[in-house]
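Hi R.,

Here's the chain you asked about this morning:
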Amino acid sequence: MKKTFFSGLLFMCYLFGYGQSTYVVTNDTRATNDAPAAFKSKFSVDFKESTVIGAPGGTPYTTLLTVAPWSDYSGGKNHQLAFNDDGLFYRVGSHTSSTWEAWRRIVTPDANGNVGIGTTTPTDKLSVNGRIRAKEIKIESANWPDFVFAKDYKLPSLQQTEQHILANGHLPGIPSAAEVAKDGIELGDMNKKLLQKIEELTLYLIEIKKENEKQGEQIKSLSDSNKQLFTELKEIKTKP
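And here is the predicted structure, written out as tokens:
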């Protein structure tokens, strides 16, 4: 239904914009907020006070476009578009209802091709001022840190890492709390850095395990030597 509605809207905009003698009169009904049931088989353009129709944004006036495709449910719900300086908004209402559903912003890119949700000044292809909830996010990233496992990779010593932490208060290669508070983080880049630290930590653990095994062998050798020495001393004491 939405696809049909917007296709029809584009056709009417073309007709009204390029027709030789076709005009749509804007009705000054600024003080009224007609219910969906008031519109049947009608296309209407109205000048409204934003607060009267509850249009989002801070501008005082809104141009309201109403499309009622039919006089009953067979044509779907009635639709309204609100145009003001804060953006383009959309709501629907059933033919028999006395109230409209909530306004929803129609998200469109700005002159730079950036889209904003919860913000009117997007600085990236998608800027969101608020929480994002998703079942899955896929990030394409190059230079995945498998280089940590290369033979020529110089693994920092634990002493070097400790010195960096004492001097700077954060891990090497990881932004500080102040930097994150100021600039945020790039999710893909941060995942790479965290994985690099996990891989380095894995190498540390492997190295520690080898050292522990070596120490265990040395302890066992010392223990065997002590047992042998104890046996020899015992034999010496038992000799007449």
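One quick note: Helices lie at 2-18, 50-53, 158-168, 177-183, 187-238.

Cheers,
M.
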